[in-house]
Design a protein that fits this description.
Blueprint lengths: L3 E7 L2 H12 L3 E7 L4 E3 L4 E3 L2 H8 L4 E2 L7 H9 L4 E5 L7 H4 L6 E5 L7 E2 L2 H7 L4 E8 L9 E8 L6 H17 L1 H6 L15 E2 L15 H10 L6 E5 L2 E11 L10 E5 L2 E5 L4 E9 L5 E2 H4 L16
Parallel strand pairs: 1-2, 1-6, 2-5, 6-7, 8-11
Antiparallel strand pairs: 3-4, 7-9, 9-10, 12-13, 13-16, 14-15, 15-16, 16-17
Helix pairs in contact: 1-2, 1-6, 5-8
Length: 316
């Protein structure tokens, strides 16, 4: 069998893992890469190529990065590549039917959840935020409806109680790439039939809003702990201390409650800073004061005038 000609569409690090995998696979030939345009990054807001573009250029691949992929000239350019299948991994733009029709085998997508659960923009973060104990990746056929295509393959992984979204992301990136190596090739060879999703079981993983980043101490400690570990990939979480932001990077939680107003620091010692919640307590283990570096909470409170003392109330 001759090599399968691939149009690869992807943007962030999650997609880089898949691109590397198919570049190493003797069954595929990447004839072109589509990624998002260069964006400002870092404190100096320097115009920076996406991780996928950086890899593609380093490998000498043909790369385009249009603002809108569905424009006539862009689609004509992609059509000239004569790709047989499009592989889409965290690309970041909606694909038109005209795009999908360019490829004899259509387009497939590596999605960071076990579909039909957590369709949408932030499946990894929402799974962690919800306290799910299992996640995975699904290789699906791309259709116009959001993440509703038939499934070609699934990989599953357990989510530990303290696993954060970045750790889950890294595991799923590897598993997702593996579906391209096995299930996609089986599908192209005609040895695997797509399985329709049960749409009645679908849940939606909406894009994360920065407004969700502030911790509300009236909520359950477990809820706050899950949000902290879910948002480590951005935008992070924070509380207020004397009107200034105090970023919260790492926590654990205790279901046992205390007789104190929500947000009250009930202890500050070598373990960290323990805060009363609407139900239970949250132990802050790593934090970052405004305009300072990230640090262990136990080390930070050794300093003078930190404000993180027993009886202080956060979030006001």
């Amino acid at each position: 069998m001759s090599k399968v000609r691939v149009c690869f569409c992807g943007t962030p690090d999650f997609a880089v893992t898949s691109l590397k995998k198919i570049l190493e696979d003797e069954h595929y030939e990447v004839v072109g890469v589509v990624t998002q345009p260069d964006r400002p990054a870092g404190r100096k807001m320097v115009l920076t190529p996406s991780p996928v573009k950086s890899l593609a250029l380093a490998k000498g691949l043909r790369v385009i990065s249009p603002e809108k992929i569905n424009q006539d000239l862009i689609l004509q350019e992609i059509q000239r590549w004569s790709a047989e299948v499009a592989i889409v991994v965290a690309y970041g733009q909606i694909l038109s039917q005209r795009f999908l029709d360019l490829f004899p085998f259509g387009a497939v997508n590596v999605h960071g959840s076990v579909l039909p659960k957590w369709r949408g923009a932030a499946p990894i973060q929402r799974a962690v935020e919800a306290g799910d104990t299992e996640s995975g990746v699904a290789l699906q056929k791309v259709v116009k409806a959001l993440d509703a295509g038939d499934v070609l393959g699934i990989r599953r992984v357990s989510i530990g109680p303290n696993m954060n979204a970045q750790e889950l992301h890294d595991e799923l990136a590897v598993l997702g790439a593996d579906t391209l190596h096995i299930e996609l090739m089986d599908y192209i060879r005609g040895n695997l039939a797509p399985i329709p999703q049960d749409h009645s079981l679908a849940t939606y993983a909406k894009k994360i809003d920065k407004a969700e980043a502030e911790l509300k101490w009236s909520e359950r400690a477990e809820t706050l702990h899950n949000r902290v570990r879910a948002f480590v990939m951005g935008p992070g979480t924070y509380t207020l201390l004397h009107g200034k932001k105090l970023k919260v990077h790492k926590t654990t939680w205790d279901p046992k409650g205390v007789d104190a107003r929500a947000g009250t620091i009930v202890s500050a010692d070598e373990q960290g800073v323990r805060v009363a919640c609407g139900e239970g307590t949250l132990l802050i283990e790593e934090l970052q004061p405004e305009s300072r570096n990230r640090v262990r909470a136990a080390d930070y409170i050794k300093g003078s005038n930190t404000g993180l003392v027993k009886g202080e109330v956060l979030g006001v």
